[in-house]
């Protein structure tokens, strides 16, 4: 496939998005599910994930002819079934939630500003998240190249040479990228703008549907205006990771649970199950949403076995097989998370996360807390209007509050376990922002004077948010007010310089066909782009230098036997230094004179170290 999208690829993008939604849309209409566009997205997401995973489990190739034929065939079959069943599309409802009334016009400028800002970012700077290049999008590209998912989660040394990080996260985000690449015939990341805009549209529909369910028809456009005024949501959704999917799934879960409380039917319960399944195949910790949804549904009045089965059906048929596969391959269904020691983890990753936790813990960085909360006021302060919705609204208050508390709790737990720090972990709050925006729909029923004042305020905030979303994340101690676009430009220059640095080609040439052991997943990917081989400390090939029952000479001998020639460490980075200090052999190695110091890396030629250790 071509690296750059030609005219044909861009022409194919819109039909590709329609073709992906077709099976879900037909089935959502056939079963008359609430919020059919949202239901269609959830059904297609579950179906596409199940198709790829099913082919992988059967040992069939994940290649373009097979996947496109089967998926488009499924869409055609759904269309024929819909036609033969005698079902017809419902007439457009006069109560269409996105059809603006005259009173809604005051909110629309803020929504328009947010939409335009997101669209520009999607095309100019697609998939901008720091770990998109070595996790989410990198995995999609590997599937295109390998025609398989055998290497994920990585277990063997060969797997770790392909995939940098130690991951078993369910790969729905990567599989959506895979569909676009296969359907358009190009792996140009610019094409992923289609995914970003599609997810943004579905997220808006989900928030509008929940706002209407909570506060009535007048709540739709105020909720979208509040959402547009939150830079945190736009930034989280546009980075091309799982956060947009999580936000859609969580908002849809709450919406369908609230709808079930009104109609007591299996349809909303099934919709809630679809949302729970999408959450669970987007991120491993999002299994907590599926479990919480089940508890909330089970505690609802009038629930019966049929309703619970409708909820559990998509969860068990789509999400559960992934975790069973993880369990079979690694001994841990939530690999690599050990879940408080219940399951086996990955010692090297646990050590890295311990260093990250020590550096970013609330106690270690207590002085940053005021800056963090001040930043939150700038990037997501508008969503606080949703807090009043709990007092003013009655319907779904318990459900909304329960899921919101869970969402904030998951962020607080994950914030200390990421090398990116609090400022990067804020993306995990995207579902919380979306829920509060829906709750802020009460503004539609406020007095006219208050509505006009708030609408003008949200317009100003949305202009600022459209700009500020380009500048996240920043260091927690950075003052949030004087952000300028220069920060974004500087980061872009830095990223391009890092990618084009001749260091990676030089390391590849110096390794002479053997492996470079690195501590950075970005370095792993960049060496791979130069045709070299790299691995991280998670690889079985690197384990000799992490053991405590052997000498440095023995560890060096084993590393060379495993094909590792160079060791490149980012010494001076606090998390890397913490990792090195926890392993005696790495400390001994660090005490030796390095072969090179360049580009922020300290490089050791293992062959030279071996010769020196033998000489001793």
- How many E-type strands? 5
Low-confidence stretches: 90-94
Shape: globular
SSE-based structural type: mainly alpha
Radius of gyration: 25 Å
Beta fraction of the residues? Answer: under 5%
- Indicate the percent of residues in helices: 55-70%
Mean pLDDT: 89
Specify the number of helices: 28
Largest sheet: 5 strands, mixed
Whole-Å distance between the termini? 52 Å
Question: How do the strands line up in the largest sheet?
Answer: 2-1-3-5-4
Fold blueprint:
Blueprint: H1 7-30, H2 36-57, H3 64-84, H4 108-124, H5 132-146, H6 157-162, H7 172-184, H8 193-215, H9 220-228, H10 231-238, H11 243-263, H12 266-280, H13 287-298, H14 305-330, H15 347-360, H16 369-380, H17 387-392, H18 397-415, H19 421-425, H20 430-439, H21 448-468, H22 485-500, H23 503-511, E1 515-518, H24 521-529, E2 533-535, H25 552-561, E3 564-569, H26 574-581, H27 584-591, E4 596-598, E5 601-605, H28 606-615
């Amino acid at each position: 496939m071509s690296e750059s999208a030609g005219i044909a690829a861009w022409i194919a993008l819109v039909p590709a998005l329609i073709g992906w939604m077709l099976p879900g849309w037909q089935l959502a209409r056939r079963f008359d599910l609430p919020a059919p566009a949202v239901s269609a997205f959830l059904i297609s997401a579950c179906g596409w994930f199940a198709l790829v995973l099913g082919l992988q489990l059967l040992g069939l190739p994940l290649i373009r002819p097979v996947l496109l034929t089967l998926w488009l065939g499924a869409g055609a079959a759904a269309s024929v079934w819909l036609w033969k069943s005698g079902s017809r599309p419902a007439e457009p409802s006069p109560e269409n939630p996105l059809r603006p009334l005259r009173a809604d016009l005051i909110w629309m400028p803020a929504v328009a500003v947010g939409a335009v800002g997101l669209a520009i970012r999607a095309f100019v700077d697609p998939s901008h998240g720091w770990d998109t290049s070595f996790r989410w999008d990198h995995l999609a590209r590997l599937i295109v190249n390998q025609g398989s998912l055998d290497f994920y989660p990585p277990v063997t040394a060969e797997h770790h040479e392909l995939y940098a990080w130690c991951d078993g996260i369910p790969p729905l985000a990567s599989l959506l990228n895979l569909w676009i690449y296969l359907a358009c015939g190009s792996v140009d990341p610019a094409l992923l703008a289609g995914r970003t805009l599609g997810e943004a549209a579905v997220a808006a529909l989900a928030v509008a549907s929940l706002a209407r369910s909570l506060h009535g028809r007048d709540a739709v456009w105020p909720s979208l205006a509040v959402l547009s005024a939150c830079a945190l949501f736009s930034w989280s959704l546009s980075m091309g990771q799982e956060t947009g999917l999580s936000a859609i799934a969580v908002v849809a879960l709450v919406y369908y649970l609230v709808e079930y409380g009104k109609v007591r039917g299996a349809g909303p319960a099934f919709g809630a199950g679809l949302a729970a399944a999408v959450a669970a195949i987007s991120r491993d910790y999002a299994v907590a949403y599926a479990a919480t949804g089940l508890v909330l549904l089970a505690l609802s009045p009038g629930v019966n076995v049929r309703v619970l089965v409708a909820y559990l059906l998509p969860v068990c048929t789509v999400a559960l097989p992934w975790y069973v596969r993880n369990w079979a391959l690694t001994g841990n269904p939530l690999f690599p998370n050990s879940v408080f020691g219940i399951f086996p983890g990955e010692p090297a990753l646990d050590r890295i996360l311990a260093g990250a936790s020590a550096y970013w813990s609330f106690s270690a960085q207590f002085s940053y807390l005021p800056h963090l909360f001040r930043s939150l006021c700038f990037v997501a302060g508008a969503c606080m209007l949703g807090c009043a919705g709990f007092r003013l609204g009655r319907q779904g208050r318990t459900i909304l509050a329960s899921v919101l508390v869970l969402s904030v709790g998951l962020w607080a737990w994950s914030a200390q376990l990421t090398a990116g720090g609090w400022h990067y972990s804020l993306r995990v709050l995207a579902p919380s922002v979306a829920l509060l925006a829906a709750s802020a729909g009460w503004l539609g029923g406020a007095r006219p004077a208050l509505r006009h004042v708030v609408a003008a305020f949200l317009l100003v905030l949305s202009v600022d948010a459209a700009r500020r979303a380009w500048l996240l994340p920043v260091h927690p101690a950075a003052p949030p007010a004087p952000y300028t676009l220069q920060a974004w430009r500087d980061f872009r220059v830095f990223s391009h310089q890092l990618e084009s640095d001749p260091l990676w080609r030089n390391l590849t040439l110096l390794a002479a066909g053997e492996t470079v052991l690195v501590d950075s997943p970005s370095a792993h990917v960049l060496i791979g782009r130069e045709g070299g081989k790299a691995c991280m400390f998670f690889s079985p090939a690197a384990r000799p230098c992490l053991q405590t029952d052997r000498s440095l000479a023995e560890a060096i001998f084993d590393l060379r036997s495993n094909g590792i020639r160079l060791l490149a460490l980012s010494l001076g980075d606090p998390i890397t230094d913490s990792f090195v200090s926890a392993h005696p052999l790495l400390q001994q190695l660090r005490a030796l004179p390095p072969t090179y110091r360049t580009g922020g890396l300290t490089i050791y030629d293992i062959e030279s170290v071996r010769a020196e250790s033998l000489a001793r």
